[in-house]
Amino acid sequence: MQFSAWEIIKQGLTGNKGWKPHWRDPEPKSAYDVIIIGGGGHGLATAFYLAKEHGITNVAVLEKGYIGGGNVGRNTTIVRANYGLPGNSEFYSHSLKLWEGMEQELNYNTMMSQRHVLNLCHSDGQRDAFTRRANTMLIQGDDAEVLSRRQVRDYAPFLNFDNERFPIRGGLLHRRGGTARHDAVAWGYARGADMRGVDIIQNCEVTGFRIEQGRIKGVETTRGFIGAGKVGMAVAGRTTQVGQMAGLRLPIESHVLQAFVTEGLKPIIPGVVTFGMGHFYLSQSDKGGLVFGGDLDFYNSYAARGNLPAVEHVMQAGMSMVPMIGKARVLRSWGGIMDMTMDGSPIIDRTPVEGLFLNGGWCYGGFKAVPGSGHVFAHLIATGNHHKASTKHLLNRFETGHVIDEETTGAQPNLH
Amino acid sequence: MRLTCPLCGPRDVREFSYRGDAVLTDRPTTPEGFHDYVHIRENPAGPHDELWHHGAGCGGWLKVRRDTVTHEVLSVALAREARS
Ligand SMILES: Cc1cc2nc3c(=O)[nH]c(=O)nc-3n(C[C@H](O)[C@H](O)[C@H](O)COP(=O)(O)OP(=O)(O)OC[C@H]3O[C@@H](n4cnc5c(N)ncnc54)[C@H](O)[C@@H]3O)c2cc1C
Ligand SMILES: [Zn+2]
């Protein structure tokens, strides 16, 4: 089904009874050319680009739960390309360009809204660091503006400019950043992949790998053995466990990150505002809810819910940056399991098992990466070579010392 | 969540900071072991031995065994004593 204005009018006039499921619900075949494990944003985008860019359509996406049940449906939907280090800079730049064409490419309303991302700074040192980052972004070909305190005040007058500890001295404005509708991104890629022949198989958990003489032969699942020429892993918070089944030992810890949403309000927040020093960020969804979050709960966790001290910290930080939000009522909070790497950057690489590829370690920043990651991972699986936008996200970089540590906090995942 | 510090008794988790997997107390003696020691983690979904620092209490390093799925704390010991 193609979406169009005409279709919407026709359906509206006929009681919206003619909409069909957006993808099929096929039985798994006995074998595929490529199997992707994990039906989150990354797995679905990978399958889509395998079919679209490389003509590989005998593909299955195996998802243990349902499409959109993982982090792709739990994140706070911020999309940006404001990274500072080689490796990440070109990758997120590539991804943002794909975001800009996504709705046309998928014929799907993913509600991509380039409503800006503003990072606040509170000291001369931080302002210098922002200026440097802005230059890095400009050199990469993306947009960046360093705002003075006064310009920030014009942009977001509701902020607390004279907090005793963190007075606002300026900001870094990234106008091409913004937010998108997370579920729609998963659905759009699922539908696009399905239309090109990819089988999306839900309620199908991978429980083991069949490896012969160092080469992948297929996967064991809760719905039986499925053969495959190549297998790509994109299981986010479960990367360690699935990797272990193939004998991989990974530089990853799983941590929980929480997020919050308030009742719907009239538009008051112009874009995404981040208060990095206080570990707080805020945006407003199209439904009007204030969407916000902060830092990890700090200890290893596989519970998709968090603990109260982190809730308290986020609320305190929010009140100190944007006092007016104290009047809004929080409706819901939730958590997701983050695959935190030892340098805070992702891994997109081959593995020691021939034919098995790894995509993981997205930490809390993998939503913005969805199109880029799917695009370069499909390229790697199809051609065996790294795409030029992702040549440095290597699995052995920890051993060789080529880590990509944006936060410069070292091998301590909960500080990235 | 609370941790029962062997020296201070049951205390709110906010008094502690988390360092990570307790393998960090097993410093390797040869250079070859260091990549594993610094980077590779078992990261289990289930019981996990980990290091916590009681910064707002006695200042002790604790080795805590905790279930990463339920957050249930299974045991707490002083890291130095747990090592030997
Ligand atoms: C609260 C929160 C806020 C966030 N905010 C942002 C943000 O603002 N911007 C941003 O860029 N990123 C953000 N992120 C991070 C982002 O959501 C993730 O990095 C990204 O979604 C992970 O990739 P994914 O979509 O493929 O993961 P998922 O959707 O989790 O997909 C992985 C899938 O693999 C499946 N799976 C696991 N094991 C198996 C198995 N054995 N067999 C079959 N299937 C399996 C899971 O069921 C799951 O559906 C946030 C995350 C959270 C939790
Ligand atoms: Zn103590």
TrEMBL record, chain A:
GO biological process, one term: tetrahydrofolate metabolic process
Entry keyword Signal: no
Subcellular location: Cytoplasm
InterPro entries hit by this protein: FAD-dep_OxRdtase, FAD/NAD-bd_sf, Rhodanese-like_dom, SoxB
Catalysed reactions listed for this entry: sarcosine + (6S)-5,6,7,8-tetrahydrofolate + O2 = (6R)-5,10-methylene-5,6,7,8-tetrahydrofolate + glycine + H2O2; sarcosine + O2 + H2O = formaldehyde + glycine + H2O2
Location (main, coarse): cytoplasm
Gene3D superfamilies reported in the protein's UniProt record: D-Amino Acid Oxidase, subunit A, domain 2 (3.30.9.10), FAD/NAD(P)-binding domain (3.50.50.60)
Pfam families with a match to the protein in the record: DAO (PF01266)
Gene Ontology molecular-function annotations: nucleotide binding; sarcosine oxidase activity
UniProt-listed Enzyme Commission number(s): 1.5.3.24
Magnesium listed as a keyword: no
Swiss-Prot/TrEMBL cofactor(s): FAD; FMN
Positions of the Rhodanese domain: 34-78
Cited NCBIfam families: soxB (TIGR01373)
PANTHER family: FAD-DEPENDENT OXIDOREDUCTASE DOMAIN-CONTAINING PROTEIN 1 (PTHR13847:SF287), SARCOSINE DEHYDROGENASE-RELATED (PTHR13847)
Family that this chain belongs to: Belongs to the SoxB family.
Protein name: Sarcosine oxidase subunit beta
Organism encoding this protein: Rubricella aquisinus
TrEMBL record, chain B:
Top EC category: oxidoreductase
Keyword Membrane: no
GO biological process, one term: tetrahydrofolate metabolic process
EC id: 1.5.3.1
Domain of life per record: Bacteria
GO molecular function: sarcosine oxidase activity
UniProt key word Iron: no
Gene3D superfamilies: Folate-binding superfamily
Keywords per UniProt: Oxidoreductase
Protein name: Sarcosine oxidase subunit delta
Lineage, highest ranks first: Bacteria, Pseudomonadati, Pseudomonadota, Alphaproteobacteria, Rhodobacterales
